């Protein structure tokens, strides 16, 4: 007869209990893994665009856009931001600066500024880095350059441009070797990491035309003091003069906005 001590019995029970606990944990992990659903990027994309009318002075624009923000996967360009309203208001009152010009816009989004400029400029390139945003941008270009809309007199095109991407910039400058008279940007300074890249891109575009032949008009909306100083610092670091356009400081959507005119030193 084999005699098992009470201590040995307790050790066996403990080992069995540990084994059962481990088995239970394994089953729970397997069940949790089965519950995980991998969602494609498209799941988060809101493309419920509405045809919306905007009026700037005597100019009436129509374009497709969202009515509220969808910021997943960097889709901020799907709606019209306060800075674009500020810039378009300024441009509609100073349309003579656009007359006959060639223009490139950075971070065009749905293209509301380009649509206004198309009434005056002779050549316009609208850019954005996000493929989904480029789809709605091109849709709005098609809408505003149709035979039913005779107000547009400019050649309107859209290209992908990721700030700081040399391949993208070189491709654009190869296609437009003469460069541009104006660079526009509206409400495009809200992410600190992108600001140095923005001014890298602006510097290349300005230097392509040479000092005195091109300027960057930036509609800036203040959301953080750190960003306010960063914009000034980066412009200066890139060898640029940044001047506030007199009379443009105003409140847009409860935020302070201003127009800056930026040129090479």
TrEMBL record:
The keyword Zinc does not apply. Gene3D superfamilies: Vaccinia Virus protein VP39. GO terms for molecular function: protein methyltransferase activity. GO terms for cellular component: nucleus. Keywords: Methyltransferase, Transferase. InterPro entries: Methyltransf_16, METTL22, SAM-dependent_MTases_sf. GO terms for biological process: methylation. The keyword Iron does not apply. Signal peptide: none annotated. Pfam families: Methyltransf_16. PANTHER family: METHYLTRANSFERASE FAMILY PROTEIN (PTHR23108:SF3), METHYLTRANSFERASE-RELATED (PTHR23108). This is Methyltransferase family protein isoform 3.
